Amino acid sequence: MVMRIVDLRSDTVTRPTDAMREAMASAEVDDDVLGYDPTARRLEEEMAKMMGKEAALFVPSGTMGNLICVMVHCDVRGSEVILGDTCHIHVYENGGISTIGGVHPKTIRNEEDGTMDLVAIEAAIRDPKGSTFYPSTRLICLENTHANSGGRCLSAEYTDRVGEIAKRHGLKLHVDGARIFNASIALDVPVHRLVKAADSVSVCLSKGLGAPIGSVIVGSQSFIEKAKTLRKTLGGGMRQIGVLCAAALVALQENLPKLQSDHKKTKLLAEGLNKMKGIRVNVAAMETNMIFMDMEDGSRLTAEKLRKSLTEHGILVIPENSSRIRMVIHHQITTSDVHYTLSCLQQAVQTIQEPCQN
Ligand SMILES: Cc1ncc(COP(=O)(O)O)c(C=O)c1O
């Protein structure tokens, strides 16, 4: 018997759909490093239009997209970037902006909702008169949605205000928009409006959108020209990428309209989990497709015990720490998968908490 698999580890685990595989097989391609791949051009043009920017560039990953953007904005070694202390660029990208880019990070505390305090941002900007001693602030980075806050959305107004601070001080604003479409759907604000104040945005195609590979960065024409050079330097110039871009074009068509349903399923799962004894979920904070499920002190539950039990039922999750599990909904999770997960978890919670009765 084939085991039912409910893969909640991340929204990066999706498999290409039949339509994506067909589009990949029949994609019109050419050498993109030479600038001739027609499918890549089509994807880049569509993404630039959707994001309200002049130009776009396909890159192999969100990590490379962020690195390229930071390095274009901070092209003088010893530049400083202001960013959140729990943001992806700072925590999960191998410190690439420092080790490869020569860029110094100045972290500000991320609030529970993924924002950084505006007064704290402005106070962190270095006084140019002190440049004999200090690095020079050149960039502010935001992340929308903010993954380590559980997929919280930054509003257009908040992003505008950060953009105003950046402008006032002659800085640039980059948005890590790995899941910007989730934010757009959750806030019901067009994606181009959400990033209007940004000089650059990196958007992942391989997260909520469900494409197998790639990200796109957007910005002004001159920004993208510099980004293209850096992409080559970093080894991210690839040849017949139309094969990948074709899948991404299908993802935009097929999966973008499904994000709202992903968010509804996330709420359904969060509400069900929150009813279980010993488990706590901040349902009000579940704005998009992520859930942080906490185990209450003294409940006998641990993340590892629950992960093991769920795995036996084909449900895959990743513990964040000993008392927290992260679950992420994507287009390949059905409402029935959510109910199945709730019922398996209920069973696991009972077995762990009341072992003598079994
Ligand atoms: C918010 C955010 N930014 C950037 C990335 C990096 O994307 P990639 O895994 O494609 O390098 C991720 C990946 O999970 C992410 O969650």
Automatic annotation (TrEMBL):
Source taxon at top rank: Eukaryota
One Gene Ontology term of the molecular function aspect: L-allo-threonine aldolase activity
GO cellular component labels: cytosol
Record domain Aromatic amino acid beta-eliminating lyase/threonine aldolase: where: 7-295
Cofactor(s) required, per the database record: pyridoxal 5'-phosphate
Substrates-to-products reaction catalysed: L-threonine = acetaldehyde + glycine; L-allo-threonine = acetaldehyde + glycine
BP terms from Gene Ontology: glycine biosynthetic process; L-threonine catabolic process
Cited NCBIfam families: GntG_guanitoxin, PRK10534.1
Record-given protein name: low-specificity L-threonine aldolase
Species of provenance: Brassica oleracea var. oleracea
